Amino acid sequence: MASEKEVVKEAVKEGINKSKVEAKAEVRRGDELLRYFRLGVLVILMLLLLVATFHFYFSVVSAVASLFEYRYQALVTAGFAACVIAVVAYLLRVVVRW
């Protein structure tokens, strides 16, 4: 990516008004700032989602322990873990294609 000074120099060589080029550079800088802000918000939301997912998973495991008899707990927990694995695999496929 060309630096702002290089863009201004090329624009002046081509006869473009310098103030218009500087305005475009300002807009580009603003767009980059907005992109970094959105990326930061995305990272924070992903961390919150990760914490909530762990909390949900261990709450379900605890609920299975209290709702089912001891001999069925392993079977239900394994079924839940298999569902979680299937959902995560599907989401990973979607994200990789994106």
3D structure, described in words:
The protein has 98 residues and is mostly helical. The chain folds into 2 domains: 57 residues, no CATH class; 31 residues. It is built from 3 helices and no strands. It is rod-shaped and about 80 Å long. The model has no long low-confidence stretch (mean pLDDT 81).
Can you give me a brief rundown of this structure?
The two termini are 24 Å apart.
Helix content: over 70%
Tally of contiguous helical segments: 3
Q: Structural class of the secondary structure composition?
A: mainly alpha
Characterize the overall form: rod-shaped
Proportion of residues in extended strands: under 5%
Mean pLDDT, nearest integer? 81
What's the order of the H and E elements? HHH
Distance between the termini: 24 Å
Uncertain runs are none
Total count of domains: 2
Largest sheet: none
Number of strands: 0
User: In angstroms, what is the radius of gyration?
Assistant: 26 Å
Topology (elements, then pairings):
Layout (H helix, E strand, L loop, with lengths): L3 H11 L3 H50 L2 H28 L1
Helix pairs in contact: 1-2, 2-3
Features:
2 domains; 91% helix; 0% strand; mainly alpha; 98 residues; 3 helices
